[in-house]
Amino acid sequence: MPHDNVTRLIQPGTFDDQLTQVLRNGAKALLAKAVEAEVADFLAKHAECKTEDGRQRVVRHGHLPEREVMTGIGPVAVRQPRIRDREAAASDPGRIRFSPSILPPYMRRSKSIETLLPVLYLKGISTGDFSEALAALLGKDAAGLSALAIGRLKDGWLDEHARWQKRDLSARRYVYVWADGIHLEARLEDEKQCILVLIGATPEGRKELVGFTDGARESAHDWRELLLDLKRRGLDAQPKLVIADGALGFWKAAGEVWPTAAEQRCWVHKTANILNKLPKSQQPKAKRALHEIWMAETKAAAETAFDAFIESYQLKYEKAADCLAKDRDALLAFYDFPAEHWKHLCTTNPIESTFATVRHRTIRAKGCLSNKTALAMVFKLVEGAQKSWRRLDGHTQLPKLIMGVKFADGLEVTAKAIRQPDTAAA
How many CB atoms lie within 10 A of CB 283? Predict the structure, then answer.
């Protein structure tokens, strides 16, 4: 439904009822208690600090003026307690300072609202319509969200994204890198209606957005530009394994820029491609047979299941069998890495799940966003999502990969295991 119809159907004040007011009052009381508890903990931590004349050094000192924080249920008023260090002046660098985590200084809107704004922007809400749309959701008292305020926020996001694109990468290293091309509902201004995304796993097992830009999903040139830009900014260490869909132009670019990285095709994409080449009556059975391959406990068992699938379908469904056979090595590459990582390495899910809320394949529409603006909006969404990304299981194995330790069937290959074939031959 077009956004102008939505704003006509949901008028400001629609949710300004008694229940909402009760929720706001409850939130205000709960927030006040949480802030007071944080202050009490801070004072208790510094209870032993005394002034020269024996008095308590760190004490309460009234409250800051009341301010409103915009939340998902509308504005919530709060007063932040002041903390005073009796022994130091305000300009003294050694002064004991209270830095609240629940209610940071100058905070005017909650993180949920910060996330909502770029979503609405990408959905097509214009700057001038934000106040009306947000008033319908947050109440008629939703201050600080005027067209001018939204414009300033957007400019800030553009600046943040520009700084992120130029950040120094010389101290970064990524053991694994996932790549995918994401189509968005956001209307870009030219033919490049795709976001090229790279997510990497650090040696500590944490996933990070490494790079993304607009481009053509199948274009090796656009992927090469992205990879070379990362290299120019200091990302010299090649990943040990890259994971992507087989249809991307990414593979040609990665082979040139990261020639030593192993390649892993995404099993979710490959399964979908194979099933599309089979009649619906054959798809459930074929899907189970494909699962037996990448769910096998050893590479040898996977190879056996691989050959069995090709033998079963080659005669009658040659295209499906060939689709699987052509990527044999790349589909089974994960067996040469720690078993704890297999579930992370078989698919491009780290990217797919992150972009689930904005990944839509749609036609061009009126009111196109500039590529620069759309990328900045997506950047803000990913930046927020990144905070909740799970750490890789078995992250302690990652430093071993960097040091060159080999794995077979998910297990570390020890020196003894390497010598065994020579002993048997002797």
Answer: 16
Q: Position of tokens 């801070």?
A: 42
Q: How many CA atoms lie within 13 A of 397 on its CB side?
A: 19
**Are 55 and 190 within one domain?**
no
Residue 360 has which token pair?
Answer: 């839509």
* C-alpha–C-alpha distance, residues 160 and 209, integer Å: 14
Q: Which sign, positive or negative, has the C-alpha torsion 115, 120, 126, 128?
A: negative
Say yes or no: 14 and 63 in one domain: yes
- Taking the model in full, what pTM does it have? 0.68
Residue 209 lies in domain: 173-265+353-389
- For residues 226 and 252, membership in a common domain is answered with yes
Does any domain span residue 164? no
Residue 167, in any domain of the structure: no
Residue 326 sits in the same domain as residue 240? no
Q: What is the DSSP string of 109-171?
A: B-HHHHHHHHHHHHHT--GGGHHHHHHHHH-TT-TT-SHHHHHHHHHHHHHHHHHHHT---TT
Average pLDDT for consecutive 10-residue bins of the chain (426 residues)? 44 46 54 72 85 84 72 61 77 72 56 56 55 52 57 77 92 95 62 79 94 84 95 95 89 94 95 95 95 96 97 95 95 96 91 65 45 78 79 94 95 65 41
Domain count, the chain: 3
